[in-house]
Amino acid sequence: MERPAIAGGKPVRESKIFYGHQYIDEDDIQAVVEVLKSDYLTCGPKITELERKLCELTGAKYAVVCSNGTAALHIAALSAGVGEGDEVITTPITFAASANCALYCGARPVFADIDPETYNIDPKKVEEAITPRTKAVVAVDYTGQSADLAPLLKICREHNLLLIEDGAHVIGTKYQGQMNGSIADMTMFSFHPVKTVTGGEGGVILTNEEALYKKLLLFRSHGITRDVEQMQHEPEGLWYYEQVDLGYNYRMTDMQAALIISQLNKLPMFIRRRKEIVARYNEAFSNMPEVFVQREIPESDTTRHLYILRIVPEKLTIDRKQFFEALGAENICCNVHYIPVYYFPYYEKLGYRKGLCPNAEKLYEEIITLPLYYAMSDRDVESVIEAVQKIVEFYRR
Ligand SMILES: *Cc1c(COP(=O)(O)O)cnc(C)c1O
After folding, report:
1. How far is ligand 1, taken at its centre, from the CA of residue 118, in Å?
2. How far apart are CA 250 and CA 69, in angstroms?
3. In this structure, are residues 212 and 239 in contact, taking their beta carbons and an 8 Å threshold?
4. Centre of ligand 1 from the C-alpha of residue 145, in Å
5. Does the C-beta of 95 come closer than 6 Å to ligand 1?
6. pLDDT tens digits for 307-323?
7. Residue 297 contacts by C-beta under 8 Å, 6 or more apart in sequence?
8. For residue 149, which of 181, 104, 103, 189 has the smallest C-alpha distance?
9. pLDDT tens-digit profile of 337-372?
């Protein structure tokens, strides 16, 4: 039997491979350079063009692009009317921003447990967590598989809550045949470099509701309006504008927008490659009893942002930490998504304790994020698989 590198063997590859990496080509570079030579570096034509393209892509009526996905979630929560004393239900298996957006507004995040097989928020647990103070649900499309939006929307409608979709992972995925982005009341995409499409930084909120759209625009830019209908006083002249609410400067630059537009031209290619890699991983791992493959729901036609390998601890002599280190020794540099949000000291200080969401806590103990990105070669994919196989065979119980 071959020895894993951590036990003195030879690594499956000489060079390191990371869990994610952006793909930037000459077209992307040219797109940014053109903006730099133009009249507008921000609030220019690339912003409107990108917003139109995102509406076309998703079928959403309105798009408000922001400096990043976290800012987008913040203005979504504000536009949903989330404020002091309110509650916002979300999943613990996510990046902190999904819950922090409630804290920014003075509200309390309430964590509902995940489904143990799809790893997405469990609609039944959401329903149980609703109180008279609940204002909104932030559902995360973990790894790019759509959250189960139909039951979530039903629950939100029954209880008069807004459904905000944290779709940081979901671009390119369809739910019940419809592109994610036009289904929930508001959907956020992130354009951080590890995400499927990047602008360096960047985010967007998509919505079909005009009233929400108007609020989003205000909160994105200081609460300032030039729309006479939103003003409290008669305009004093053509220069006149009013600050009618307390907003922020969460605007995106035209350089970011141009890069994202150029990246979106490659989205079909990104989707195809990600699906290919995921299919290959699934094929290799689904008949290994020592690991679980994330369950796919038929409603979601998934473009995966992250690939999660879940170990079955009872079938191995090593735990997740050791498995992770063994992969590292093979030069397969992985990650873990995510540490349950309420484990963080800041949340602990707010009174959250371990034990809240048992399915999420168990998942966290057993997961490793494997490399998945457009530019991975077939050889890269095979070396990841070989490394997993070698480790599993050596440490099989
Ligand atoms: C990346 C990410 C965010 C934050 O997006 P930024 O653009 O980095 O601010 C929020 N939620 C999830 C689930 C993410 O993966």
Report:
1. 20
2. 10
3. no
4. 15
5. yes
6. 999 999 999 999 999 99
7. 118, 145, 146, 148
8. 181
9. 999 999 999 999 999 999 999 999 999 999 999 999
Closest CA to 361 of 93, 140, 151: 93
The model scores a pTM over 0.85: yes
Q: 324, 322, 312: which is closest to 370 by C-alpha?
A: 324
Q: Which helix (H) or strand (E) holds 248?
A: none
The sign one gets for the Cα dihedral 55, 195, 98, 366 is positive
Locus of tokens 């070396």: 383
Give the H or E element holding residue 215: helix 210-220
Q: Which helix (H) or strand (E) holds 327?
A: helix 320-329
Sheet holding 203-207, edge to edge: 62-66, 203-207, 186-190, 162-166, 134-140, 87-90, 108-111
**C-beta 337 within 6 A of ligand 1:** no
Question: Got the DSSP string for 15-26?
Answer: S-B-S------H
Domains of the chain: 6-22+267-395 (3.90.1150.10), 26-264 (3.40.640.10)
CA-closest candidate to residue 188, choices 174, 173, 170: 170
